[in-house]
Amino acid sequence: MMWWKKRRAIVCEQAVRLMAGYLDGVLPDADRARLEAHLSGCPHCSEHLAQLRIAILAAGHVQPDDLPEEAVDDLVEVFRRWQQH
After folding, report:
1. pTM of the model
2. Most exposed: 7, 79, 81, 85, by fewest CB within 10 Å?
């Protein structure tokens, strides 16, 4: 394979960007393999992924009415800032 056609190893920033698709099961096979290879050697990203899984599990048990209004406002603000990046 030619050098420009090879997929390079990913760095942490790229790994974090791929994690949502990975958790949703929609990441293309090549990207999934690259992410899993990165996770196997990066304890920081592995921990981040574990924390995401915990957050998703916990969020599945919370209803919007269970949260104080300030918490909902904070979450909306965080989401808006995230979308701008």
Report:
1. 0.64
2. 85
Q: Which single residue is written with the structure tokens 């989401």?
A: 79
C-alpha–C-alpha distance, residues 34 and 24, integer Å: 16
What is the rounded distance in angstroms from the CA atom of residue 8 to the CA atom of residue 20? Answer: 20
CB 35 within 8 A of CB 28: no
Task: Read off the pLDDT of residues 44-69 as tens digits, 9 standing for 90 and up.
Answer: 999 999 999 988 888 777 777 777 88
Among residues 2, 68, 9, the alpha carbon closest in space to that of 33 is found at 9
List CB contacts of 9: < 8 A, sequence separation 6 or more.
34, 37, 38
Rg of the chain taking only CA atoms, in angstroms: 16
CB 35 within 8 A of CB 22: yes
